[in-house]
Amino acid sequence: QDPRVRLLPESGSSRGLLGDYSSNYGYQLRRVSVRPSEHRYPTSFGSNRDHTSSRIELLIDYAPDPWAMFAQWILPLLLVMGLVLLAPSLDVTLRDARLAIPPTALLTLVFLQQSYKAELPPTSYLTFLDHLYTYGYAVSVGLFVLFLWDSNQMEAVTEGQRQQLIRRINRVDLRCQLGALAGVVVVALVAWYR
Q1: CA 20 to 30 Å from 116, out of 8, 72, 79, 141?
Q2: pLDDT for residue 136 is more than 70
Q3: What is the tens place of the pLDDT at every residue in 97-109?
Q4: Strand pairing partners for 94?
Q5: Which DSSP string do the residues of 38-92 spell out, in sequence order?
Q6: Closest Cα partner for 102 from 136, 71, 129, 150?
Q7: Is 136 helix (H, G, I), strand (E, B) or coil?
Q8: Nearest-10 crossing angle of helices 128-156, 95-119
Q9: In 10 A of CB 169, how many CB atoms?
Q10: CA-CA distance, 133 to 116, in Å (whole number)?
Q11: pLDDT tens digits for 12-60?
């Protein structure tokens, strides 16, 4: 006689394998499968017998809904970064508005990152979104420093040199704006394929 028992799952849908609370918020159930396996104990427990027991493993494959994840986590980040990257397009004479945008965006990014981190389990590595947020912090601080420089230059120049300085500041702002935009693409690609 063979003392082993063979368990066969209910054929058909996966509903017979999962309980009522098998859903996971924000994820779609893709596949459920059962496979037989054996567990071998690392000790003989003082006897000469082989302590191997059979078991079954239930494999559940969840996948995030790509559009929901994009709308929930990436779109707000892109909107804030878009506003930050548009800030250099403001006229140089609007110094107060230009100086207010990067710190506001920085605080918004911090709260956005904290809210997304609260929904996911902690990790010991930087995620794709962490790379994007870190770059967003760097751009916000960099543009704030640029706007401080712009503002100090405008205060130090005489009225006759003001138009020439405005043209120079606009060129520097455009280069920084395009460089920051290209940086977003590079950071996203590097973080995605890492």
Answers
A1: 141
A2: yes
A3: 999 999 999 999 9
A4: none
A5: EEE-SS-TTSSS--EEEEEEEEEEEEE-HHHHIIIIIHHHHHHHHHHHHGGGS-T
A6: 136
A7: helix
A8: 170
A9: 19
A10: 11
A11: 555 555 666 666 666 777 777 777 787 777 776 667 666 677 777 878 8
